[in-house]
Design a protein that fits this description.
0% strand; signal; 79% helix; Pla_a_1-like; disordered N terminus; elongated; mainly alpha; Butyryl-CoA Dehydrogenase, subunit A, domain 3
């Protein structure tokens, strides 16, 4: 089955060789500057936005060095999908390890449900984004941010419990925030 996330990867793979050739060093610098400008603008808008996560995440994907604002949004969505998918594997490993008490195991199972739904939601958001429905994409991605927060908060329902998914939840939240900020920037154009 062809998923929107597969389409995004395909789109970025096809787009990258055409835009980023060895002779476009100046163009690449301009696109890297576009990443910096975008991350700076988003950090100025939101107090919870992480400039560092934005910059390092987007710059780590070669396709982002040769794309526009729409392409950066797709990169952020793809990174969020990858994060959520990898987190599902991590959660399954933690559950199967048997090293958590019943409360923590229930929390992990709740997180597994949140992340599984999050992947589907992010794919739906990507579809909405690709059809120019930025507000709809914003709503979908915001719900995934809520899912990461819900997962994190579940462990704090009992005193003395700390989420083993703190890093995963943080990065999913931040990657979604990057996408939402870019949606908002695009909507303002």
């Amino acid at each position: 089955m062809w998923h929107f996330s597969s389409f995004c990867c395909f789109f970025l793979i096809i787009l990258t060789p055409q835009l980023a050739t060895p002779s476009t060093t100046i163009g690449t610098v301009l696109f890297v500057d576009k990443i910096n400008q975008t991350c700076t603008k988003c950090a100025e808008i939101s107090t919870i936005f992480s400039y560092d996560v934005c910059l390092t995440s987007l710059q780590a994907v070669p396709a982002s060095h040769a794309t526009n604002l729409q392409g950066l949004a797709l990169v952020a969505l793809e990174l969020a999908i990858q994060n959520a998918t990898a987190s599902i594997c991590t959660i399954k490993e933690l559950v199967s390890s048997g090293s958590f008490d019943p409360f923590e195991t229930i929390c992990l199972m709740d997180c597994l449900e949140e992340y599984s739904g999050g992947v589907v939601t992010l794919i739906e958001a990507t579809g909405a984004f690709l059809t120019g429905k930025y507000e709809e994409a914003n709503v979908w991605v915001s719900s995934v941010m809520d899912a990461a927060t819900t997962c994190e908060d579940g462990f704090s329902d009992r005193q003395g419990h700390v989420s083993p998914l703190k890093k995963e939840n943080y990065f999913l939240f931040q990657l979604c925030d990057i996408a939402i900020c870019i949606f908002n920037l695009l909507s303002a154009l």
